[in-house]
Amino acid sequence: MNKEERYSVALFVSVGHVIKAEKILKKAGIPHKVIPVPRSISSDCGVCVRFLTEDKDRVKAALSELVPINEFREL
Amino acid sequence: MDGESLIYFDNAATTWPKPKEMIEAMVAFNDSIGANPGRSGHRLSIEAARVIYSTRELICELINAPDPLSIILTKNATEGINCCLMGLLKQGDHVITSSMEHNSVMRPLRFLETKGVTVSTVLCSPSGEIDLDDIRGAINKHTKMIAITHASNVTGTVMPIEEIARVAKEHGIFFFVDAAQTIGNREIDVIKVGIDILCFSGHKSLYGPQGTGGFYLRKGLEEFLSPLMMGGTGSASEFERQPDFLPDKYESGTPNGIGFAGLAASVRFVLGQGVDRIRAREKTLTKIFLDGLKGIEGVMLYGVDDPSRRTGTVSFNIRGVSPSDISSELDEKYRIMVRPGLHCAPSAHRTIGTFPQGTVRFSFGFFNTEEEILYGIKAIEEIAKTYYNRER
Ligand SMILES: Cc1ncc(COP(=O)(O)O)c(C=O)c1O
User: Fold this and answer.
1) Which domains does chain A possess?
2) How far is B354 from B165, CA to CA, in rounded Å?
3) Which of A22, A37, A45 sits opposite B234 (nearest CB)?
4) Domain end marker among B255, B273, B291
5) pLDDT computed for residue A24 by the predictor
6) What proportion of chain B, given as a percentage, has pLDDT over 70?
7) Same domain assignment for residues B267 and B280
8) Under an 8 A CB cutoff, do B69 and A17 touch?
9) What is the pLDDT of residue B389?
10) Res B87 pLDDT > 70
């Protein structure tokens, strides 16, 4: 992880939603990674999607309507 | 046919053989994924979740459903049917069904009757066809759902789901379709037709492994449908209440991951062959069989004449000979596997006039050949000659 880059995560209600979000972001060409939910965040379903904080608006736009995001968190 | 090969004509019960891609996908899942999907967050668990998601996506593609998360995966069609009928119909509700239903629909409805749900069973014609006016006539102000099979597993008769959907829509009634006999061999577009719930088997005309099935639920309906089973979903674990979102609301407990990995490969196979081609192939085989049987003295055929309005399932009897005698003779002497008897649908047999002895059912699949069909006709010819003539 590059020190200069700031990351955020999007949290979802279930792993199905995470995989759906992953597919959409992949298609939209927005860099992302499915990661275990960091310990500092209490959320369920075990996994979340990490992306560059500067891409937050793009992520929001890509997922809107298609997958409800539970929450955004900056890392 | 050489003396060694078995001929499998019981595809309406479960298809066989399965495409080799199915077992390859199951081995791959077992060897390199194997984890519990969506429970643990490690890479194998995520990979397992991806596989199951792809199964949902492929089914969506097949039935034109908009959202993979609206495909609920179950262990067979029966589980989905039970979940939807028992979860949606409450005391005081009225439901309309047909006399051609499988017991997987009929038994939950009979049970619901004891809980204050009223059921109208529309009597179909002796060839298994339904009259739309009879459906219209059964509607009352409490009618909540029309629940109907897409095709009879006894006669293969295909129901006019497009027209029935229109009736349901006109009256603001939920439309439930049991597609156990048709998914993968007839085009189904849940949006275009206007289907609210579509239940299906994975192990029949999708050519997937046993222990797989599912249902499509129109978005928003989860608000009205209570789950049949509750438990761990890997989501919303901080709450002791069942999650209210799809598909988790109806998918409690560890799923059949390896089965759904196989099902994904099988649906890919079906999409690759094309539903149109599969249907055309089964229609050709069925037509050859029907034409062959028509010429045999003593044979009584059931269902509609027109092969385009039926699936690859054919029921018949030889006058005076019991279905189980015919099927054992077919097995022992000809190595042909078929199903005799009532096929889990007593009401359908009453409708076509074959209760309680039932019928002999031949059901064809993609892997059957013309040669096999001709051999099957010859076998029936010989059996009819031996037994029907002797009975007279
Ligand atoms: C019309 C129909 N509905 C439901 C079922 C039940 O399917 P499953 O065995 O997958 O539960 C079957 C098959 O037996 C069927 O033919």
Assistant:
1) 7-74 (3.30.70)
2) 29
3) A45
4) B273
5) 96
6) 98
7) no
8) yes
9) 67
10) yes
Query: How far does the centroid of ligand 1 lie from the alpha carbon of residue B180, in Å?
Result: 5
Nearest to B108 by CA among B129, B136, B79, B134: B79
pLDDT of residue A1: 52
Q: Which residues of B touch A23 (CB under 8 A)?
A: 53
Residue with the bigger pLDDT between A46 and B134: it is: B134
pTM: 0.95
Instruction: Give B46→chain A minimum CA distance, Å.
Output: 8
Count how many domains chain B has.
Answer: 2
CB of B90 within 8 A of CB of B120? no
Partnered with residue B362 across adjacent β-strands are B314
| Within-domain flag for B1 | no
Residue in A with minimal Cα distance to B57: A20
The ligand 1 site (C-beta within 6 Å) comprises: B 76-78, 102, 104, 149, 153, 178, 180-181, 201, 213, 344
pLDDT given for residue A2 in this prediction: 57
**Interval B148-162: pLDDT, tens:** 999 999 999 999 999
Domain that holds residue B349: 7-18+275-391
Angle CA B152–B154–B159, to nearest 5 = 20
Give exposure, B108-143, as e/b (b: 16+ Cβ within 10 Å): bbeebeeeebbbbbbebeebbbbeeeebeebbeeeb
Which CATH number does the domain housing residue B216 bear?
3.40.640.10
Residue B207 and residue B15 in contact, taking contact as beta carbons nearer than 8 Å:
yes
User: Looking at this predicted complex, what is its ipTM?
Assistant: 0.86
Strand pairing report for B174-178 and B143-149? parallel
CB of B9 within 8 A of CB of B368? yes
Residue B2 lies in a domain: no
